[in-house]
Amino acid sequence: MKLLVTIVCFCFTFLAQAQVKKDDVLFTVAGDAIMASEFVRVYNKNLDLVKDESQKDIDAYLELFVNYQLKVKEARRLGLDEDAKYIGEFNNYKTQLTKNFMSDNKVTDALVKEAYDRTTSDVKVSHILVRLDESVSDTLAVYNKVLKLRERLINDGFEAVKKEVHDGKTIFAEDLGYFGGFKMVYPFETAAFNTPVGEVSMPFRTRFGYHVVKVFEKRQSLGEVTVAHIMISTKQNDSTVDPEARINQIYKKLEQGEKFESLAKQFSEDKSSSKKGGVLTPIVGGQLRAKEFEDVAFSLEKKDDVSRPFKTDYGWHIVKLISKKGIQPFEEVKNELENKVKRDSRSALINSALVKKLMTKYKVKVFKDEGLAFMETILNDGFFKQSWKTPKDIKEGVLITIRDTQVSYKDFADYLMSNLRKYNNQLVDYKALLTTEFDAFLEQQVLKYHEDNLEFENEDFAFVLKEYRDGLLLFDLMEKEVWNAAVKDSVGLEKFYNDNTSNYVWRDRVDAVIFSSASKTTIETVKTELQKDISAENIMVMINKDENLNVISTANTFEESDQVLPQDFEFKEGVSNIYKHNESYHVILVNNVLPAKKKTIEEARGKVISDYQNYIETNWVKLLRERFGVEVNKRTLKRVKKQILKNN
């Protein structure tokens, strides 16, 4: 038994030692530690990008990683990280990256799925709205009023209630037709989709006031359709024009082959679309007031299908289908929906969920009652005239603590002052105003603290940010020390070329015209004509007559091993044999054979500059190693190799 326990313990110890720990140092640069965990993460991240097995060599990759760290160290020594342009570019990136990490993923995923379900469905509703300003907190009277209207809606029906109460100012009773996700404010959308068909919701509040909705029908979304139309209005200034006769005349022209776009430009009385050939913006099911138009538009099946003339309340129409898009699979629209969710008012739910978690994580303490009681004493009616300011001698006091950070009364007062415009010319109860604004202020402060400390709280964020921070530095450094240096150093470039001329040579080349065709017979005809000394231009005209493109010619200087040349191509002047290459037939007219020779510096300039840059970089890295010194922890490297090999 003791032996078994000993073996188990030994194996556990061995496995533990083989795993790289977070604080294991792989190597140092000028005494600064570079962690093994960072190397493993970078290696694994780039593993899928390598082109062959040799690039997976851990020692070779470590060499590159050490060189990378040396360059970053040099960039900081030169103060490139203090350059204003660098700081601005880095901060812009950090701001964008932060947005991706400032959310609660579970809540976001649930909202995205909900949004998909609602964009693939339509709901048909009517509603009654009693207007109420967003800032009003005493809402009981309005709520009760809407509750009574709900009872009447259930008992008397929508049309009867609408006829009696709708005034278009303080009370609205409207038939909204069909709509899907993102077409209404989120609370309204939620009430409509959550209320069963045939029932009336309980009163709910949006920024417009209190509503109730009655749901008549739910259906699968029709998708999206783009159409063009020609419209003749039923209201004519010219009494001699019969709208129905005119639309039938236009339809007759279409049947005779005239273009829809031209007829729309000439005759359509929808001036907003006629100049575009009648093309309308994409239509989503339930979007249009004219159900007849929607029914016809969605009934067309194939691109360029044209409807017969039909009538709506607006006039007579002929519709042509431009494109049609049905319901898209969730995975295809997921990213687009996530962006919409984060821009929509429902994003507040994501923030609220995140703040709730962060309040616990950061041990947030709130001294609300005492703080708001004090704030109430310093407000006055100037607040509603945009003349109120934070008192200079405001009492010191702590309103919120987030870990070791304190948020003061003055911080909240300054926040209130920045929101004066929202309450311009309103008279709101101080207590209600402070409660509303404090909740928003608390959320803002917790999220700001989280954002400021995200690099220390989220390992993934810290890694991506460091990667960009160092990469941006490295780009600036390489541009300064290597890339621009090689281009500007004309003397050094010429010397490098002279020392390495054997690397810059032309292989055998031909000045030639390649004729290509999918038809062997066609190429045989081309070859026969070439042998008659007919010019390439005349052959092309003869072969490609009647707008048929039977053969393509390419004139250039082609080097040996050029992929456009057949592998067994013979370098000699005159008309070549016929070759089958790249799944087509070729014959080549060789005007001149150019034997192998050395390239001039101008001919090889691009390659010479690239090689010279590599030469400069190699010698520069040697100097950096001498300047900073690199020490590799061989024991840690051994564990790194074991872990990488085991996991890959």
Automatic annotation (TrEMBL):
Keywords: Isomerase, Rotamase, Signal. InterPro entries: PPIase_dom_sf, PPIase_PpiC, PrsA_foldase, Trigger_fact/SurA_dom_sf. The keyword Signal applies. GO terms for molecular function: peptidyl-prolyl cis-trans isomerase activity. Pfam families: Rotamase. PROSITE patterns: PPIC_PPIASE_2. Residues 120-217, 222-323 form the PpiC domain. Gene3D superfamilies: 3.10.50.40. Residues 1-18 form the signal peptide. This is Peptidylprolyl isomerase. It comes from Psychroserpens burtonensis.
